[in-house]
Amino acid sequence: MDELIANYPAIIELMESRFDSHTFILELAHAQQAAYVAALNNYAAGGTPFQTLHAQLSKALHGFPNLVQYVDEVRSPNIFGRVTPCAQWRKL
Questions:
Q1: What is the Cα–Cα distance from 27 to 25, expressed in whole angstroms?
Q2: Taking the model in full, what pTM does it have?
Q3: Nearest residue to 24 via CA among 89, 92, 75
Q4: What is the gyration radius of the CA atoms in the chain, in angstroms?
Q5: Which of 8, 15, 33, 49 could form a disulfide with 43 if both were Cys (CB 3.0 to 4.6 A apart)?
Q6: What is the DSSP letter of 59?
């Protein structure tokens, strides 16, 4: 997970001026595939590894207040194509 979070600034730079957590996580997973799979595996025993990891990854965006600001909760397609709530962010 630390390897993924270390890449947040680079991924944030690639994002549109406003983006949601689902889109951010897809970009992060694409750019850091090995680290993403390793982090996902850490949650495999819990039964909902994607949901658990993605919640942690989204929450970790709050750790970059100089790069992003939380805007609101929105609904967008998750990694499985289901429309679910997630955070919307604004780049600073």
A1: 5
A2: 0.94
A3: 89
A4: 12
A5: 49
A6: H
